């Protein structure tokens, strides 16, 4: 597509040479994909077609092989067809969720590379960014992924700029963190094609009053998640969440919160029923548990990125919290997966 000026309702947008129309979309549904993420991707397009009175947006469900694909909620969807060298789309997107090792089939990764080489806009929904990263399609691009997978993704792909944003659109790559974030991303893409007036009509039909921007955070604020009203305690908790690999000493946490160590201990005891040190350690151990399940990082490396320079200390702490050593957690994760 030649560079030029495209006028849309409410604003003028300059198109670059790598921006293609977003009309025909191939949605690859991986094994154990997220049903809510897929529906939040498709429904804005369906409603836009209904409002416009014509099938402007078209989509097809694609899988590795012809047949049914089971979502993580146990429901099956029949893919329209299997991946093919003859596929012709303006964009393709991978919708995934759990069972990422099985989703990363070499045939699928090769197909994604072929699509990208043809200039097809390539995207990811929920944990679909993992497949794009495995295919080498996110180097030099911003992307996002579901917050539960963000730390393990960053650990496995340190060269990729992965954010905690709701969605990311970076040139001919697009990604969202899943669930209703797919709705926000699709509404934004519709606006780029047809302006904000259509987007507002679609959101009204979907009873979606508050459109979120890409830079919005996936997770609620600490105060909302933990039902805590004390502002100083929330500052302390946020500081701990942001410093996992290089933990702060409790005196520094107290200083950031604007209280003494004794006052901080009282706040934790009254609101969370534990000391700041115990809460901080458990926070890091839970992060380690996620990495053991979601990545193939050596256990000693998991310990390091979660702020435990001594493996012996890490193993003892892990056993205290979970009742078994981290090596047993890794074996359990390989047997059971994330289901």
Keyword list:
339 residues, alpha/beta, Rossmann fold, two-stranded antiparallel ribbon, 17% strand, globular, INH-QAR
Outline the structure in words.
By secondary structure, the chain is an alpha/beta fold. The protein has helices spanning 35-52, 100-103, 106-117, 128-134, 147-156, 181-194, 196-205, 222-226, 231-242, 250-257, 261-272, 276-294, 299-305, 311-322, 326-336; strands at 4-8, 11-15, 24-29, 58-63, 68-70, 76-78, 81-82, 91-96, 121-126, 142-144, 161-163, 167-170, 173-176. The chain has 15 helices and 13 strands. The strands form 4 sheets. A 7-stranded mixed sheet has the order 7-4-3-8-9-13-12, with helices on both faces. The protein has a two-stranded antiparallel sheet with strand order 1-2. A two-stranded antiparallel sheet has the order 5-6. The longest helix is centred in the last third of the chain and has 19 residues, at 276-294. It is globular, with a radius of gyration of 22 Å.
Low-confidence stretches: 1-20, 334-339
Name the structural class: alpha/beta
Domain tally: 2
Give the tally of β-strands: 13
Report the CATH superfamily of the largest domain.
Answer: Class I glutamine amidotransferase (GATase) domain
CATH C-level class of the largest domain = Alpha Beta
Note the main sheet. 7 strands, mixed
What percent of the residues sit in helical stretches (DSSP H or I)? 40-55%
Instruction: State the strand order across the main sheet.
Output: 7-4-3-8-9-13-12
CATH fold label of the largest domain: Rossmann fold
* N to C succession of SSEs: EEEHEEEEEHHEHEHEEEHHHHHHHHHH
Label the overall shape.
Answer: globular
**Relative strand content:** 15-25%
Radius of gyration: 22 Å
What is the end-to-end distance? 43 Å
CATH-level-2 architecture of the largest domain? 3-Layer(aba) Sandwich
Q: DSSP helix count? A: 15
């Amino acid at each position: 597509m030649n560079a030029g000026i495209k006028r849309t309702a409410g604003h003028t947008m300059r198109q670059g040479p790598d921006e293609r129309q977003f009309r025909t979309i191939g949605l690859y549904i991986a094994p154990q994909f997220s049903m809510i993420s897929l529906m939040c991707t498709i429904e804005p397009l369906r409603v836009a077609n209904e409002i416009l009175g014509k099938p402007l947006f078209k989509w097809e469900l694609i899988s590795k092989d012809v047949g049914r694909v089971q979502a993580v909620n146990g429901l099956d969807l029949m893919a329209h067809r299997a991946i093919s060298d003859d596929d012709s789309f303006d964009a393709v997107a991978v919708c995934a969720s759990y069972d990422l090792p099985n989703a990363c089939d070499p045939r699928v990764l090769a197909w994604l590379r072929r699509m990208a080489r043809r200039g097809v806009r390539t995207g990811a929904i929920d944990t679909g960014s993992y497949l794009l990263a495995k295919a080498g399609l996110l180097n030099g691009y911003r992307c996002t992924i579901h917050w539960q997978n963000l730390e393990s993704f960053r650990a496995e792909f340190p060269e990729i700029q992965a954010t905690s944003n709701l969605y990311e659109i970076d040139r001919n790559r697009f990604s969202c963190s899943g669930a209703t974030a797919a709705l926000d991303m699709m509404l934004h893409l519709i606006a780029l094609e047809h302006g904000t007036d259509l987007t507002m009509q679609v959101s009204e039909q979907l009873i979606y009053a508050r459109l979120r921007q890409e830079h919005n955070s996936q997770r609620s604020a600490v105060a909302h998640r933990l039902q805590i009203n004390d502002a100083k305690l929330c500052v302390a908790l946020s500081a701990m969440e942001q410093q996992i690999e290089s933990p702060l000493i409790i005196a520094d946490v107290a200083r950031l919160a604007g209280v003494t160590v004794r006052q901080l201990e009282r706040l934790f005891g009254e609101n969370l029923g534990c000391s700041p040190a115990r809460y901080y350690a458990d926070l890091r151990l839970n992060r380690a548990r996620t990495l053991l399940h979601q990545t193939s990082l050596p256990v000693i490396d998991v310990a390091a990125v979660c702020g435990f320079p001594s493996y012996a200390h890490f193993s003892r702490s892990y056993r205290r919290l979970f009742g078994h050593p981290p090596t047993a957690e890794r074996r359990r994760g390989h047997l059971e997966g994330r289901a």
